[in-house]
Each structure stands twice: as C-alpha cells, then as structure tokens.
Write a structure and sequence with these properties.
Elements (H helix, E strand, L loop, with lengths): L2 H17 L15 E4 L5 E5 L4 H11 L3 E5 L1 E3 L11 E4 L1 E6 L12 E5 L5 E3 L12 E5 L3 H21 L7 E5 L4 E6 L9 H12 L27 H11 L5 H11 L1 H15 L5 H5 L4 E3 L4 E2 L4 E2 L1 E2 L8 H4 L7 E8 L3 E3 L2 E3 L2 E9 H9 L3 E3 L1
Antiparallel strand pairs: 1-2, 1-3, 3-12, 4-5, 6-11, 7-8, 7-9, 10-11, 10-15, 13-14, 16-19, 16-20, 17-18
Length: 373
C-alpha cells in the first residue's frame, strides 16, 4: 500500500476513534484481558495490559492502529509472555463467515488482484495481463452473503439455548466488520473449559462426526423404535424434521432407510449434517489464547466497524456499520463491481479518477481497489 493511502486511512481511522469512541465496547474485567493492535504495513503488537477506557482511548489515538484486538481469556498477568500469563477462564466465541458457506453468489463479487502487476480482474486463478498465479482474492460481500450468515447465527443461537442451556441474555452477536458475525457467550458454564472440550463443543454444534447409531440406525439387530420422533429435542428432532418432512411420512421413510442399509444411512447423515449443522470455524472457538477484534473498532479489510447487532433480522451492515465521514475525496478507482454503502450505489469503475465520499474511498482502498489521486 502506498504511503499516501496509508496516511489517508490513518487520518480517517483517527477521526473515527476521536469522534466515535462511544462505539468502542470496553470489555468487562478490562485489566484481566490481553490487548493487541496492528498498524498499516506492519506486524502485530501483543501482550498489552490496559486498566480502563481512558488508557484504551490513549492507545488508539497515539498509535492509530489498522486493527485492535482483545482476548476472550482472563489472565492474572495479561502483559507477560503467554506461558507466564496465568490463564483463568475465557468467554466462548464463534466465528461465522460468508466465505465458508459455499454460496453461489461469491463468484459474481470476488475479484482477483495480481501481486506482480496489480491487474484487477473478475474472479480468476491467473492474471489476465502477466499470467502470474500470485493472486490475492478480494470479495465485496452482497446482501445474500450477510443473509446466509444471519441464518447460521440463528441456528447457532438455537443450539446454544435449547441444547446447551445457555441463557439468551448472555449471547451477544456482532457484525465482524467484513463478511460475517462473531457470537460471544458470556458467563456460561463453559467459561473454564479448555481447548479440547471447546473442540468437542464445536463438533456437536456443527454436527460433525455424527454416527448412525445416534439416530437409530444399527449395523445389526435393527429396530424401528430407535429412530427419532418428530417432536424430540436436540439434533435427533432436527434430523427427524429434515429427513421425514412430516409425521405422516415417518414410518414409510424409516422402512426405506432400513432397506437401504447402514452405509447408505451414513451418507444420508453426512448430507443432513451439511444442511442443518451450524457452519462455524472450529479453530476460532477452540483457541483459548486468541485475541479477537475489539467490538467498536474498525476492520481494516473494509473500513467498516465491528458492531453489536441488537436486531439481527433488520441489521444492515452497509448502513449501520459505516461511520467514516461523508467528506469527498479524489481517488483512482479500479473496481469492476458495483457496491452499496450508506444507501448509495458506487461503481463499477474501470481505472477512473472519481470524487466520492470518504467512507466509500476507505472501503475501496482497504480492498485494494482504489488509491488516493
């Protein structure tokens, strides 16, 4: 990224942190958390202890980070190296990202940027100009991406509340600032469990590794009575609704499943898991030492803010998470896809000099689709 672009982004981010510090969600038990940040074009600074919101505000204004992070873990000594921090417990966090949902719309709004000659083209694995395969993919997520991610958030909430007895008030949903959502679970019975147990939890939530016996199918001594009923709780009930469709079809479909045998049932179960299991990133949830993007901070992949969603159904990140100013700026834009921010349409732009609001310029520069004129 060019120096003039970095300067522009830093100025825009600094103004945001100065004007909108009220958006920053300073975590509870602040002094027990590890903080970290990144600056544009440089590495991560970690193992920072912060006492309160004043210290956090000072860190933001002094350093103007591209990204700010905070641990989900609580430590006795958050500023010491990892093996000396003395881990106490950690909030449970789930990451749902549109890029992991195998959506058909992705092809239409993913761009390929050549790292050799900077040529930008529609989604491809090779540069159309210099034939290089050193390609960086950038996506401009659409409404369908956000809606599909919301469905996974709703599915996750249902499993947490109905199956795992998590209190609804302790589940907080945040737009990640780019392509999905972070779901935080506070003050649950899972606070003190380690990485392995969290991994098992993600297997349950995503219905990964499910075996036919759990759903009534046995290799030997088959028994119709073992199959799930329509009104059962948990995954057995969800399986019944997905596979049987209605109570009246249950008996007929069980007969078919038994006739087709164990191996066929496993295939059916794998397909059902793919359809109704919650699509979360297991590596995120099982990592008890990770630092996560701080709620209220800007995501440098987009210039949008990581923001809490109080009404998920109505939430629109492209109006509600864009806080950068409306002042106009001149940029050279090469963005062959149309996008919408703050109810305004932008693009497509093919190597043109344009005057646009700062919030749209920041979005494109963060995506490497524009530079300051």
């Amino acid at each position: 990224m060019q120096e003039s672009d970095i300067q522009f982004l830093e100025n825009s981010f600094k103004k945001y942190y100065f004007d909108h510090f009220d958006q920053i969600k300073v975590p509870e038990r602040t002094s027990e958390r590890e903080f970290g940040y990144q600056k544009f074009n440089s590495g991560m600074t970690r193992h920072i202890a912060i006492k309160d919101d004043k210290e956090l505000h000072l860190m933001l204004i002094q350093n103007i980070p591209s990204d700010v992070y905070c641990s989900n873990a609580y430590y006795t000594f958050p500023n010491l190296p990892m093996n000396e921090k003395d881990w106490k417990e950690a909030d449970l966090i789930f990451d749902i990202d549109a890029k992991d949902l195998n959506l058909s719309c992705r092809k239409s709004h993913t761009l390929s940027i050549c790292n050799e000659c900077s040529e930008i083209s529609k989604n491809s694995s090779q540069c159309s100009k210099c034939n290089s395969t050193k390609i960086e993919k950038k996506s401009l997520p659409c409404k369908n991406c956000i809606d599909a991610s919301k469905i996974e958030v709703s599915k996750l909430s249902e499993v947490l509340i109905d199956d795992l007895a998590v209190n609804k008030e302790n589940i907080h949903v945040y737009f990640s600032g780019n392509e999905g959502f972070h779901v935080y679970v506070y003050n649950s019975q899972f606070q003190k469990i380690g990485s392995r147990e969290r991994s098992e939890l993600t297997d349950y939530i995503s219905l990964r590794g499910a075996i036919p016996e759990t759903f009534g199918m046995k290799k030997l001594k088959q028994d119709r009575a073992l199959f799930p009923d329509f009104d059962e709780k948990g995954w057995r009930g969800r399986f019944a609704k997905q596979v049987f469709g209605s109570k009246s079809k249950r008996s007929k479909i069980i007969t078919e499943l038994l006739a087709n045998g164990y191996a066929s049932f496993q295939k059916t179960l794998d397909d059902v898991s793919e359809n109704i299991g919650v699509k979360i990133d297991p590596n995120v949830t099982m990592d008890i030492h990770r630092i996560f993007r701080l709620p209220g901070s800007i995501n440098s992949k987009s210039g949008l803010t990581k923001i809490q969603c109080n009404d998920l159904t109505k939430f629109d990140p492209y109006t509600e998470a864009s806080f950068i100013s409306d002042d106009t700026v001149e940029v050279f834009a090469n963005c062959p896809i149309e996008f919408k921010l703050k109810n305004k349409k932008f693009g497509p732009y093919i190597n043109e000099k344009i005057t646009i609001p700062t919030f749209a310029a920041v979005y494109m520069i963060c995506k490497k689709l524009a530079r300051i004129a």
